[in-house]
Design a protein that fits this description.
Blueprint lengths: L1 H28 L5 H22 L9 H25 L4 H9 L1 H12 L6 H20 L5 H23 L7 H19 L5 H6 L7 H27 L2 H22 L6 H20 L6
């Protein structure tokens, strides 16, 4: 029924906005910039909750075979790059600018698909990716708080997001559902991030973190892990009942909501040219959602 879809969409938007705000709070306000530990904690809790939910029958998950898990490992590597670089970037870049840069991941997806498949150019899609690319390229020039490291990590993030999107859509195996794919992502991430915690210096830095014993810090970390899991469930629930176009509409609305509210939650410095980049980028995203009505990606 239509009203159930709206409820699922509103639930997704709420969890999406609160999840990004919580992550931003821990990373920027509390300054816990140790992504191997922060993302390792989130993926560990996500894996435990997902496996527990599967055992209790709350979600549908089949037994994952070794061959299916191995064939999905390229996607898991891209997922780790996505969350690690995303944390680095989000800790240094304001949410509206982060989403503007993240939008250009569609440019990466578009280029990959055009390179591997020859198909007729859809002009609305081409114009939309051009708008998002131009916005992302011009944003560093006008960002009043430009952070070179943050933008470098944002580039790594959008490359991983764009490549992961293509891999997920064109993955040929029918053995893995979205939840099973994410379960592999979680388990692989926990293993890889745990191994990387000491060489990157995150473990040593975290042990000396000033707010380590703070209840605010503990609450923020617990909330971020739980919200990440809820975001997965609401995303899968929403995707199962909607077309790609309508799912894209809810993502777009969730981003816009987060950007409109974020200035009231976090301090940010924004000027007219940088705001124009944000608006143009999301106008391009809206056009892309329209252009994807008859497309797979």
């Amino acid at each position: 029924m239509q009203w159930k879809r709206h409820i699922n969409g509103l639930a997704f938007s709420l969890v999406f906005v609160v999840s990004y705000f919580t992550n931003k709070f821990v990373l920027s306000v509390l300054k816990f910039t140790y992504p191997t530990l922060f993302q390792g904690w989130q993926t560990l809790i996500g894996a435990v909750l997902l496996l527990l939910s599967g055992k209790l029958g709350w979600v549908e998950m089949s037994r994952i075979t070794r061959s299916a898990a191995l064939s999905w490992l390229p996607g898991s590597c891209l997922f780790v790059g996505n969350i690690y670089a995303g944390s680095r970037a989000l800790s240094r870049i304001d949410i509206p600018f982060f989403f503007t840069l993240q939008n250009s991941s569609h440019v990466v997806s578009y280029i990959i698909v055009k390179a591997v498949r020859r198909e007729k150019t859809q002009w609305p899609k081409f114009i939309s990716v051009c708008l998002m690319l131009l916005s992302a390229l011009n944003l560093p020039r006008y960002d009043p708080q430009f952070d070179y490291s943050g933008y470098l990590w944002a580039v790594c993030h959008l490359l991983c997001v764009g490549a992961y999107r293509v891999f997920q859509v064109h993955y040929k195996s029918s053995n893995l559902s979205d939840l099973e794919q994410q379960c592999i992502n979680y388990l692989f991430s926990v293993l890889l991030l745990a191994i990387a915690a000491h060489p990157t210096g995150d473990l040593t830095g975290a042990l000396e973190f000033p707010s380590l014993q703070s209840h605010t810090f503990h609450g923020g970390c617990c909330a971020s892990a739980l919200l990440g899991f809820l975001l997965l469930l609401t995303t899968v629930k929403l995707k199962s009942g909607l077309s790609l176009e309508h799912f894209g509409v809810w993502i777009f609305l969730s981003k816009v909501t987060a950007m409109l509210i974020s200035p009231f939650i976090f301090h940010m410095d924004i000027n007219t040219p940088s705001l124009f980049c944000v608006v143009v980028s999301h106008a391009g995203e809206a056009l892309l959602v329209y252009a994807q009505r008859d497309s797979q990606l």
